[in-house]
Design goal:
7 strands; Rossmann fold; alpha/beta; binds magnesium ion; seven-stranded mixed sheet; 31% helix; binds guanosine-5'-triphosphate
């Protein structure tokens, strides 16, 4: 469990991000998918990262220091249609530069709304991560919005799409994965899946940080 979570800084570009050697984990995904809410749920602080019912709330790279040992990063969403072309381009560059140039980035969590069918923009983004060798996991969000059966069906359908077993909703330009990345199912509303997510982060941290005293 996280004891201390503190906001550090908002940066407009990777070049201005904190100079630090701490391992870093970032949340990315479409606008409104629930990135900021999940950070708040993990930290048990609803006011830590700013959230909104309207997409396009987070527009900078936000660093949070966790237990003085690692950083959580809240990124802007991608693909927000109403944002306008130049704003979308600006955010895309900010996100891409962060993913490619941030040496401290240990793992990226790609958030996907569990209610929707696989979207091309997410699949293409994950393909790009694969091509660039950026390690990532998939986090399904808003699990509280679906019943148990529907949720299981949607997750299975998503996995099948990634594995190339279901080509109904995406075209052939989307690559097929041989192996699935780690997958988490979460709800910030009900605090579902947050322990699993933290355990995964701690497991990675343990490979290069000294153990905590508590
Ligand atoms: P941007 O910063 O605009 O890219 O969005 P974001 O991905 O940070 O989303 P944010 O956390 O601001 O949440 C968007 C909306 O979804 C808010 O109204 C949240 O209350 C809601 N939301 C987020 N997570 C959950 C969840 O697990 N369950 C439910 N029911 N609503 C959620
Ligand atoms: Mg946000």
């Amino acid at each position: 469990m996280i004891k201390y979570a503190n906001f550090v800084i908002s940066s407009p570009d990777v070049a201005q991000c904190p100079q630090s050697t701490l391992p870093e984990y970032a949340f990315i995904g479409r606008s409104n998918v629930g990135k900021s809410s999940l950070i708040n749920a993990l930290c048990h602080n609803p006011k830590l990262a700013k959230t909104s019912q309207k997409p396009g709330k987070t527009l900078l790279i936000n660093h949070f220091l966790i237990d003085n040992r690692w950083h959580l990063v809240d990124l802007p969403g991608y693909g927000f249609a109403q944002a306008g072309k130049s704003q979308r381009e600006k955010l895309r560059r900010m996100i891409e530069r962060y993913c490619l140039l941030r040496d401290q980035l240990t793992n990226l969590f790609v958030l996907i709304d569990c209610r929707h069918e696989p979207q091309k923009i997410d699949l293409e983004f994950m393909n790009w991560l694969g091509e660039q060798g950026v390690p990532f996991s998939i986090v399904f969000t808003k699990a509280d919005k679906l019943g148990k059966e529907r949720l299981a069906m949607n997750i299975e359908a998503y996995q099948n799409t990634l594995l190339g077993k279901n080509t109904d909703h995406v075209d052939d330009s989307v690559a097929v994965w041989d192996e699935l990345p780690p997958i988490f199912i979460t709800s910030s509303e009900k605090n579902t899946g947050t322990d699993e997510l933290l355990a995964y982060i701690e497991q990675i941290n343990a490979t290069f940080l000294p153990p905590t005293s508590h």
